[in-house]
Amino acid sequence: MPTQDDEEQGQVFVDESDIIHEVDVDEEDLPDADDEDDTENIEDPHDSIHIFTGHTGELYAVACSPTDPVLVATGGGDDKGFLWKIGHADWASELKGHTDSVSSLAFSSDGQLLASGGFDGLVKVWDTFGNFKRTLEGPGGGIEWIRWHPKGHLILAGSEDCTAWMWNVDNGNCLNVFSGRGAIVTCGDFTPDGKTICTGSEDATLRIWNPRSGESIHVVRGHPYHTEGLTCLSISSDSTLAITGSKDGSVHIVNITTGKVVNSCSSQTVSTDGNPESIECVSFAPNFPWAVFGGMDQNLTIWDLQNSSPRFICNHEEGVTCLAWLGASKFLATGCCDGRICIWNCLSGECIETFKGHEHAIQSLAVSSNLEFLVSVSMDGTARVFEIRDFC
C-alpha cells in the first residue's frame, strides 16, 4: 500500500499484492476523450413518423390537401413555403416569391389550388405541383389569414391594414374590400353555405358582411361582447353561429342572422400581472352540440351548447395555442407552448395520447384527408407527422 511519504512526494506505487480483481476491457467500449458528457449525445424520444426539415426558420402555417392524403403545405419565418408529401422524403417543391414571412396557407375546397399569404401583403396562388399561378395584390399590410370560398375559387384574406379583401382567383380580379373602423383584421371566414362573411378585429368587434355588396349587415361590439381584440373565430356547420375568442380571456357565441350574443363564457384564470389569459383557438364540434376553446390559461374547455355550461375543463402543462378535430369524431388534438400535442376524448374529457418531438411551441395543426395523419408545425423550425388512424 502507498505510504504517507510516497503521497507527500506526489508518487504512488502499486504492487501485485494490492490488486484485488482484474477485469478485461475492450478498447472499443472506452469513451472518447473528446466526449465530455455521453448524455448530450442521446436524442430525446419522439413519436413522429416523418419530419420535414426544409425550412430554415420558425414555422407558422400548415395545410393538408382535402383530396390528396399525403400532400402538405408549410410556411414560416424564412419567407418560404413548401409543398411536400408524407412518406416521400425525396419530393418537395419550394414556393418562392414572398419577401416576408409566410403567415397563412389554405387549399381550395376542390384541392386544385393552394394559396399562401405573407407579411409582405401578398397572396400567391399555386397548383398542387408547386407551379406559380398568380399574385393577388391590394392589401397595404401583412396578411393575417386566408380562407377559400367553400364552393368556388374565391379567396378572402384579412390584413394588418384594417381591411379584408376578396378576389376571384381564376382571373385575379378584386371583388370587394371590407373595411371596418381602423383595426387589424385578425380572423375571419366565409360561412359554410358561402352566403355570408364574418371578420374579427383588434378593435374588439365582430363584423358580419354581405359578400356580394360588401355591406356590413351587423357590427357586434360593447357589452356583453369582448373588451379587447379578437384572436380567433369559427363558424358552425349550419352557418347560423359564430364563436369568437379574445385577448380578454372571454368567448362569445353570436347568432349570425340577428347579430346578437347568445352565449358567453370566460377563462378561469388570470396571468401573473393580473390580466386575463388570452383565448387562442375556438371551434364548434362537427357532430356534437359542443364548442371548444383553449388558451394561455393552460386549459381546453369543452362547452355544452344546450346547457350553456362546461362539460369538461382539460388541463395542460402549458398554454394551448391551436386545435384540430380528427374528422367528425369525438377526438380533438391540441397543440401547446411546450411542444406537445394532446389527443382528447371529448365524450369523457380524458387525454388518451400525448405526442412528443417538438422542442418549442406548436403554431398550427392540420389533419390529412384520409384521417390517418396529423401534421404539426413549430417554432423549432420543423414539421412533424403523427399517426392518428387509431382515433378516427
Automatic annotation (TrEMBL):
Coiled coil: none
Subcellular localization, as worded in the UniProt entry: Cytoplasm
Transmembrane segment boundaries: none
UniProt entry keywords in alphabetical sequence: Cytoplasm, Repeat, WD repeat
Pfam families: WD40
GO cellular component, one term: cytoplasm
Superkingdom of source: Eukaryota
Annotated region (Disordered), positions in chain: 1-46
Main location: cytoplasm
SMART domains documented for this protein: WD40
PANTHER family xrefs: ANGIO-ASSOCIATED MIGRATORY CELL PROTEIN (PTHR19857:SF8), MITOCHONDRIAL DIVISION PROTEIN 1-RELATED (PTHR19857)
The protein, known as: Anaphase-promoting complex subunit 4 WD40 domain-containing protein
Species for this entry: Gossypium stocksii
Lineage: Eukaryota, Viridiplantae, Streptophyta, Embryophyta, Tracheophyta
